[in-house]
Amino acid sequence: MLRRTPSELANRLPGNLGDSVEVMWILQWGSHAMVHNPLHIFAANIFWPYPHTLAYADSLLSIAPLYGVLYAVTGQWALSWNLIWIGLILLNLGATYSLARWLTGRTDAAIFAGLAVGFSAYVLNNAQHPQLELIGFVPLGFLLLFKLLDRPRWTTAVALGVVNVIIAFGALYIATGYLIALGILLVGFTIAIRGHFGRPLVACLAVAGVISLIAAPSIIPYHDVELMYGRRPLSPEWGLRFQDMVRPTPGSYLYSSLPQGSTSGTAERHAFPGFSTMALAALGLGVLFFGRRRRRGAHSHEDHTLPPDRKRYLLLLVIMGAVITILAIGAVADGFPTPWKLLYNSISPLAGVRVPARLVAFTILTLGVLAAVGLSAVLRRVAQPAARVAITAVACIVVLVELAAPVSYTHIPDDPATLAVYHALSHMPKAPVVELPMFNPATDPTDWAFGEPSRMVWSTIDYDPTVNGYSGYVTPTYDNDAALFATLPAPAAMTRIRALKVRYLILHVGVQTDIQMYTPAQAQAIIAGLPTATVHQYGPNYLVDLGSS
After folding, report:
1. Rounded to a whole number, what is the largest CA-CA distance in the chain?
2. What is the reported pTM?
3. Is residue 292 part of a domain?
């Protein structure tokens, strides 16, 4: 489904040179800061001199250590991130399979659920947002919670607490939906048992809760960022729509005639799990609510459509999926108090969740499990084992064909000529840097989105603080600084550089990341107009040292 060759793993990333490369920088910075400066891990080296710049996007601190280990072994950015990305997809496949198998009691139907959820349009389309692939921890968390509620054990409680911490330290969208889901599941379970909790269960839930609190400090930087910039307004186009459930991955081999991401906001709203999945999910929903057990008699047999002790958890999962689907609709219209809008305006950590449609991942998981229930009902009515295997194989092949689509990949330049200036900078005293031309998100949003992330990754060679940056927020002075630095060597630009205590300028020359930088003549004109400075050329680029004063 991913079609990756060994050589591509080492030099091509999923997605594009924007968010995908930004995620690589996040992992690179996080793994570095955990070792060298763990108390100031959110003080990332972009958007100098503003604080908490790692909190401008998902921190991914839960998987940064693994990335650091892989990078230490391979020494390659792309290979390390590709191994993480593929591992997260495998986790999603395996965790969804395990959850469906525990709930339905069938291996064959659970395999279908794993494939339907693990290769859904949500997963393949979000190759450009790899942080959202952390969704695989969600079915694992649900499985552990259900097992804990079913049979309290200390080991399960500890494992659940650890998964909660991993999700909280991972991606904000996933953590938000997961926290809401846990609340729905626990409230529903409390109502189902009429509040009669046994002491072992209370103790185990307390253990899981205490471990989960380890992640609480990670909220502080995000809260501080919200206080600094205020809440970003919700946009109706970022909410889920009915047609998004039949919006496949762009370039779908089988369903090119279905809706594509051609209008504003639709690039985030590909939620197609396959028509076969939806049909089996509808059957599973019917089995869940209307299925019944035949009484044993002389000419009948007991028809177990579901494990009797797991139906409660399936019902809770369906209720949770329905509620979060409603929340994923987001702000349909200004002034209309949708459930998501009420939550967004009242709960501070939700300030960074601008795209509620991404919560549809929980809907897709629910549909996948229901599809397993539906397929189980079909297979239980087939007597021959060989026929059951054949039916399962056909169902799995059909859903894979339905979901198959090209996955886009990109290459971040890592040739010696491009990186030479950063290696040179790594041997010089630490000081703030400005990389020029500095792309302006107000006037050149595309160049900013596809030019600055690569520079962020390159900056992890030296880890000097840089005024440049790309993320979910933009600092208040960024647009003005970019416009001012475009006038170098004008006196006003030099005054701003001195105010920022910038020592180094990197002048990029030629075409990099498919964007035209300075011409050699433009770079020389800037250098000629600067005050006394030391200038060296590394590859096509120039490193200007303005001096420590």
Report:
1. 101
2. 0.91
3. yes
